[in-house]
Write a structure and sequence with these properties.
- InterPro entries: Cro/C1-type_HTH, DUF6922, Lambda_DNA-bd_dom_sf.
- With about 160 residues, the protein is an all-alpha fold.
- The chain has eight helices and no strands.
- The longest helix is centred in the middle third of the chain and has 19 residues.
Length: about 160
């Protein structure tokens, strides 16, 4: 089990794939030997499908792994995915001044629907720390796309 905790947060299918490869076992015959559809095992080893407890027990038994190892890895993987969802819903508000959003309640902002307005405002009036947080939250590509779509003032020629 301790060896597998280094894989904490990684989809258990990747671990199964490694174990099969390390032991020179082909996926299809292995799936059939545990009375599972080869397509199901393939989807799991490619990280496209979660590993249920019943199948985890079959795989562990057949490979001689400690009982519960793969189920625990699946749980850690799901926890990591949930954390990513929670963290990605809004930027780190402690890095953004509330005065930037003086005309609205910062806790009521829909950060996805109002992304254009948020990005433009922060890049017009924000500090470098605030700009960096917005880049981290939305990603450089999205920020650049939105800032690139901002209409620019036409160039004027000085008549001096």
């Amino acid at each position: 089990m301790d060896n597998f905790l280094k894989y904490k947060g990684i989809h258990p299918g990747i671990v199964i794939k490694r174990e099969l490869k390390k032991r020179s076992i082909k996926q299809r015959p292995f799936a059939i030997s545990i009375k599972e559809h080869p397509q199901t095992l393939n989807a799991i080893t490619n990280g496209k499908r979660n590993l249920n407890t019943a199948l985890a027990l079959k795989v562990e038994d057949k490979l001689g792994l400690e009982e519960g190892t793969l189920a625990i890895l699946q749980t850690y993987y799901e926890i990591d995915k949930e954390k990513e969802k929670l963290e990605s819903k809004k930027p780190t508000l402690s890095l953004l001044r509330k005065s930037l959003f003086w005309d609205t309640d910062i806790d009521q902002i829909d950060w996805q629907k109002q992304s254009k307005a948020v990005i433009r405002r922060v890049f017009e009036r924000g500090s470098e720390t605030e700009k960096n947080e917005i880049r981290r939250f939305y990603g450089r590509q999205k920020v650049n796309a939105i800032l690139g779509s901002v209409p620019r003032e036409p160039y004027t020629v000085s008549t001096k």
